[in-house]
Amino acid sequence: MSNLGSAVSEINGSSEDIAHASNLDAEPVSGKVRARLKRAKQKAADAQVIVIEKGRKSARAANDYAHDRPWTTAGVALGIGVLIGVLIGRK
After folding, report:
1. What is the pLDDT of residue 1?
2. CB under 8 Å to 37, separation ≥6 — which residues?
3. Which among 19, 31, 56, 83 could disulfide-bond with 24, CB atoms 3.0 to 4.6 Å apart, if both were Cys?
C-alpha cells in the first residue's frame, strides 16, 4: 500500500502542475483526481477481499482432498517431483 500512497502523492502533484500549465484552478482538477483515486482504491480493496476469500476456499478444498486421499496426494506429489527433477537434470 505504500506504493499506492506514493502514486497518489505523485498524481496529486501532477494534477496541480497540469492545472497550473493550462491556467485552470487546481482545486477542481485535484478534487476530481482524488475522487477517482478513492474509487480505484475502494475497488482494489474489494477485489483483494474477493481474492483472499477464494484463496481460502481453494486452500480448504485442497486440505480436505489431501486428508481424504493421502496416498493419491503423495503419489501426485512424487510424480511432480520426479518430473521436475528430470527437467532440471536435462540441462
Report:
1. 47
2. 8, 11
3. 19
